[in-house]
Amino acid sequence: GGWACLHGRYWWSPATERPCGACGVDRRPTRGTAAAAAAAAASLPPSDRPYVKRLGSSNSLRGMLGGGSSNHGSSGSLVPGSRAGSRHSSPMPSRPSRPSSPTMPSSPSPSQPRPQPLPSAPESLPPPPSSVDPERRGAKGAVLNGLGRVQDALDFRGWDGRPQFEGKEGLGRVAAIATILGLILGSHLTLLLLVNLHTFGFVPIDLLSNLNPGTLDMIHRWLAYAVVLSSFHLSEFFVTALYNPTVTTADSFVVNQSLAYTAAAVMSWIEFWVRFVACPGFNLAWTRWVGAMLVTMGQVVRTAAMATCGESFNHVIQRRRKDNHVLVTYGVYRYLRHPSYFGFFYWSVGTQLLLGNPLCTVAYACASWTFFQRRIPYEEATLGRHFPEEYPEYRAGSYVGIPFLRLDED
């Protein structure tokens, strides 16, 4: 048989250009005889060998690579020396004659060295580190491991062997996250509409009529919060897909951004439902409206920042300047030099005011402020290295907008 990456997507060419998106093997997809593929695989350095496995039939590779449409979205054929998914104007090179048996590869000629079999490889790469630590003990360990299991679920841990789900580039993972967020948004938006119609007397609902005003207010708050939260994560993905499509993955939903983010969300839900059961009437009406205004302002500013920045925006700080990176100083960036951080800071605090959570409102404000106090100076130093002439002048004429941050030269 031939040689392929662990997921059976590529087999080897001497040129190294395109990695397998699932297992990271750095080889270009190609066509050729099984013997040529095996010989090329045998010439790989030892560091690459654990990432390959032997396939039982060269026809299985031909079915994956030669037949049907390309996985790379182009009607062009994949040939040696061409880029994956590109159109190739020259005809396909003629193939050597194939043996009559569909399952037996051709034997090398006496003058051709017989390729040596590579060491057996594991069927899948090790999964990413789990957020669950068996060494944790006591109540604190139980809580942390419980949060870790939630984080592992958000990271799709345990989906090994399913290429469309195990990697962040997989369309299956994107579809699963989008479906869940869409269901949350649609169901809560429908219920919110019904509650509003009942509140304003358009559609009386007997079930809601029997609730006291405090309980009804908290139901309204939770429905609005769920709409805001799901809309935020959906917008993160779709805005990235529209304006910076080359870096769009399932991680662009930012539902799995960190264990700290997951823990903060869970803590806010716990506070809300404890209040819902224990003291549903203890709510300040103004917090709902202030929270709604902060959430709206934060979402609009952050979305505008991502759209304006385009390909220069990334959810992860880029330590190296890319060719398409430019210093954006127009639009919302004319006044705020970190508008996405500005938007997220006020959005996160606004969500807790919207829920009416007094403890988490303070905790979110402090945690967000601490995070940006560390991140913004580092990012500004990075931007200063990327744009040593433009950034100091731009920095002097713009604002951060997050109160009490200690930044040099502000």
UniProtKB/TrEMBL annotation:
Q: A Pfam family for this UniProt protein? A: ICMT
**Which Gene Ontology cellular component terms are annotated?**
endoplasmic reticulum membrane
What InterPro entries does the database record attribute to this sequence? ICMT_MeTrfase, PPMT_MeTrfase
What stretches pass through the bilayer? 174-202, 222-243
Topology versus the membrane: Multi-pass membrane protein
Ranges of compositional bias, category Pro residues: 105-131
Specify the enzyme's EC class, one word.
transferase
Question: What processes does the entry annotate via GO biological process terms?
Answer: methylation
Biased composition, class Low complexity, residue ranges: 87-104
Q: Tell me what reaction this enzyme catalyses.
A: [protein]-C-terminal S-[(2E,6E)-farnesyl]-L-cysteine + S-adenosyl-L-methionine = [protein]-C-terminal S-[(2E,6E)-farnesyl]-L-cysteine methyl ester + S-adenosyl-L-homocysteine
Keyword Transmembrane helix set for record: yes
Give GO MF terms, alphabetically: protein C-terminal S-isoprenylcysteine carboxyl O-methyltransferase activity
Location of this chain's protein in the cell: Endoplasmic reticulum membrane; Membrane
What UniProt keywords apply to this chain's record, in alphabetical order? Endoplasmic reticulum, Membrane, Methyltransferase, S-adenosyl-L-methionine, Transferase, Transmembrane, Transmembrane helix
Name the source's superkingdom.
Eukaryota
This enzyme's EC code(s) = 2.1.1.100
For this entry, the protein name equals: Protein-S-isoprenylcysteine O-methyltransferase
- In its UniProt entry, the species of origin is given as Trieres chinensis
